[in-house]
Amino acid sequence: MDFFVHLAEGFIGMFQEGGKTFVGLVTGIIPTLICLITAVNAFIKFVGEERIERFAAKCTGNIILRYTIFPILSMFFLTNPMAYTFGKFLPEHQKPAFYDSAVSFCHPITGLFPHANASELFVYMGIATGITQLGLSLGPLAIRYFLVAIVVILIRGIVTEYITKMMMKRREAQAAA
């Protein structure tokens, strides 16, 4: 009989914990996301979408800025997952590379700017806990994590753009044949 009581309590306990997690999301990250989305949309309306597109065109005209500054700005201002919407300012052949760069920057930015990807802060905090237990400072770790990520997202962006162009040319050649 005790087995069935524990089984029933465990079964309903699982849903109670799910409910607590859901309430935590509803009272925590969802209002933050709604406020952020509203603020970004208001900013775009105040500044003007044409000006934003011109700035994006200038920023993405150079391949180095396109896969370093542009993903950093998008992740910092829009945070994850809204940051990927910055891809709408790019031509089709550059969108996969931008996404690859931006998504690769989700975790490294949390060391310096935890708001950018608050839902996955646990990745950085796991590493940071080990560093603090060793009695070391977190500042150098966060800065190194950030700087190495800039190099990594640049490489990923360039390689992904090259692969995307190659695949698009191959598809066009197959369609023409």
From TrEMBL:
It comes from the Bacteria. The lineage of its organism: Bacteria, Bacillati, Bacillota, Bacilli, Bacillales. The chain crosses the membrane at residues 22-44, 64-84, 142-163. Keywords: Membrane, Transmembrane, Transmembrane helix. InterPro entries: PTS_IID_sorb. It comes from Brevibacillus choshinensis. Pfam families: EII-GUT (PF03608). This is PTS sorbitol transporter subunit IIC.
